[in-house]
Amino acid sequence: MKTKPVIGVMMFSLAPLGQDEFLQDLEYEVVLFTPWSIRWSERLVNGLLYRDSSWLQAVSPFPGAVYNRCYTGDGKYARRVAKLIGKNNVFNCITRFDKWDVYQFLARTELKHYLPQTWRYRQELLPVLMERHRHLVLKPSVGHYGKNVYRLEKTTANKYNIYNGSVWPLLDNANKEEIMSFLYEITESKRFLLQQFIPFAEVKQSLFELRLFVQKNGLGQWVVSAAISRIAADGFWVTNYAAEICRAEAVLAEAGFAEKLAEIKTAGINTAIILEAELGSLGEISVDFGIGTDGKVWIIEVNGLPVKSYLAGVGDTELEKRVYLLPFRYAAYLLKKRSAKPLFYKAQRER
Question: Which of 96, 131, 177, 254 is 20 to 30 A off residue 219, Cα-Cα?
């Protein structure tokens, strides 16, 4: 029996997608597979196929378009898939961004004035920068969920504080030897960055940041599909510990920066365009922005595999649905471009 064409989602762990009820609106079927479930010589995949609101064990011909959700910085699996179906038919080839690479890519463009000064961490560089700036942020070059992000503060000639998320010091009134020893344990085998610390504006006496979801739509165009704001919990200087999540428009209006949203959206789309030119085919990113107390817009971070669970905090199902479905609509656009023929497969309901 003829079936709808199939969009592939490649992931490291084969498990049904969350919020899969949104997939019912697609004109295409979706098959989930891993790099290890591909039968390369036969051009088939073993996976899970979504049909009639259920996930079925399936053997499917290789999808004509693939949405890569493997969290990886080298893109080797996506490149191998692209050799089968064409490089323009696999997107999100790189999903684990290196913050230093992203900084360098953007610093060579018109977006450079949105970037805090950033340096690769070296022990010998730290005292020089601390003397010059007094406040710095230390973060992993490759990381996620805000883990291992620290604020460094020089209080007097030879005394330092270190903060990890909250305003209460993790290390208090330490001397140079103590802080260097502490940081050595953190950075010994990993790549870290030092970044200029920016005092950000507040609402409700709490810091806030803006997260833009920038995705390609069903016409292959970059759009801002959602703009939300995370307001930091009381006593925290990072918004990973969010007390409230709401629409960016509302927070910007409350903070007195409503006119900044258009500028932020333009910067978000330009960020996606620049990174795609450097990293290869992309279909979605998220860009985090902060606004200084003086009203200046700053790009804080860019992520290649956006966490969409934050959207639930806004309480808008249509917003969630749009962000969740856009990568599938973009994949459908790629299928139409290559005039994909209907695919056949055999499926057996999971037990």
Answer: 96
Residues 122 and 183 in one domain: yes
Burial of 8 (C-beta count, 10 Å sphere; 0-12/13-18/19+): buried
Q: Which of 288, 291, 289, 290 is nearest to 307 (CA)?
A: 288
Rounded to an integer, the average pLDDT of 149-159 is 88
Residue 344 predicted with pLDDT over 70 = no
Whether 205 and 80 share a structural domain: no
Give the pLDDT of residue 234: 81
Mean of pLDDT values over 245-272: 96
Distance CA 241, CA 80 (A): 38
Q: What is the pLDDT of residue 18?
A: 82
Q: What φ, ψ does residue 203 adopt, rounded to 5°?
A: -135, 145
Query: What is the CB neighbour count within 10 angstroms for residue 106?
Result: 21
Q: What is the pTM of this model?
A: 0.92
Structural domain boundaries enclosing 43: 6-93+333-349
CB 44 within 8 A of CB 60: yes
* Residue predicted with more confidence, 349 or 219: 219
- Specify whether the backbone of 112 is left (phi greater than 0), alpha (psi in -120 to 50) or beta: alpha
pLDDT tens-place string over residues 204-230: 888 999 999 999 999 999 999 999 999
Beta strands in 157-236 (DSSP E): 159-163, 171-174, 192-196, 202-203, 206-216, 222-232
- In CATH, what number is assigned to the domain containing residue 261? 3.30.470.20
* C-alpha gyration radius of the chain: 22
Are residues 50 and 75 part of one domain?
A: yes
Pairing of strands 6-10, 65-68: parallel
For the segment 285-314, the average pLDDT, to the nearest whole number, is 94
Does residue 262 share a domain with residue 236?
Answer: yes
Contact, 247 vs 324, CB < 8 A? no
229 domain-assigned: yes
